[in-house]
Amino acid sequence: MKVTYYGQSCVEFDFDGTSVLLDPFISYNELAKDIKIEDINPDFIFLSHCHQDHVADLSVIQQNSGATVAAIVETAAWVRKQGIPGDKVIEYNFGGTLDLPFGRVKMVYALHTSSTPEGDYAGVPVGYVFFVGGKKIYFAGDTGLTVEMKLLEDLQLDWAFLPIGGYYTMDVDDAIKAAHFVNCTNIVGIHYNTFPPIAIDTDEAVAKFKSSGLNLHLLGIGSELVL
Question: Which PANTHER family has this protein been placed in (predicted)?
């Protein structure tokens, strides 16, 4: 079981041979210019919300791969409008858990906003908890710090993917609080350094997490981490 980081909040999980991609934003990211999206062929794509920097490459990757796309109801409606067949779209909502061939995926709360690239209503943002092969992985998506995260503390999470760039989401200090809220020590940072407003001092971030008893992993674009 491993994860590949493609920049911003785009990650691809390899769940023992099943590929699950989240928030595809690659070809529009200057930092990810060496990544070829035609080489990415997921079985499933999950969207945390519908902002451009999370869905820009959805259509191309889905068309190339035939992946099934999962999202909250209103974002799923936008997905279907992109010409993606209805039988390749899964819509669900808070409290729902999908039982899929690779494991279970529960939709959880995120504190942010959401609209389509065209500026239309797209429901609300979400996070996901993946239950796969005995491991529990939290993908927070775009979110500010929120007390609802405490509802996850008894899950005994193995990994948490948290935004750390600030400005649009949690910053490093709030992400440290979030890690304690969800009771997880192994953190992968997302949503940082892509644009000037979310640039961070990565060495300082790692040091801050370490001083709080947490392990912050900052992956190079295209690099992998065994989970």
Answer: UPF0173 METAL-DEPENDENT HYDROLASE MJ1163 (PTHR43546:SF3), UPF0173 METAL-DEPENDENT HYDROLASE MJ1163-RELATED (PTHR43546)
SS (H, E, C) the chain: CEEEECCCCCEEEEECCEEEEECCCCCCCHHHCCCCHHHCCCCEEECCCCCHHHHCCHHHHHHHHCCEEEEEHHHHHHHHHCCCCHHHEEEECCCCEEEECCEEEEEEECCCCCECCCCCECCCCEEEEEEECCEEEEECCCCCCCHHHHHHHHHCCCEEEEECECCCCCEHHHHHHHHHHCCCCEEEEECCCCCHHHCCCHHHHHHHHHHCCCEEECCCCCCEEEC
Residue 16, token pair as written in the block:
């023992």
- Which domains, ranges and CATH numbers included, belong to the chain? 2-226 (3.60.15.10)
87 φ, ψ (degrees, to nearest 5): -75, 0
Q: Which residue from 21, 17, 20 is spatially nearest to 8, judged by alpha carbons?
A: 21
Number of neighbouring beta carbons within 10 Å of residue 211 = 9
Q: Model confidence over 81-106: pLDDT tens digits?
A: 999 999 999 999 999 999 999 999 99
Q: How far apart are CA 76 and CA 71, in angstroms?
A: 5
**What confidence tens digit (pLDDT) does each residue in 179-225 have?**
999 999 999 999 999 999 999 999 999 999 999 999 999 999 999 99
Mean per-residue pLDDT of the chain: 97
- Determine phi and psi for 130, rounding to 5 degrees: -100, 130
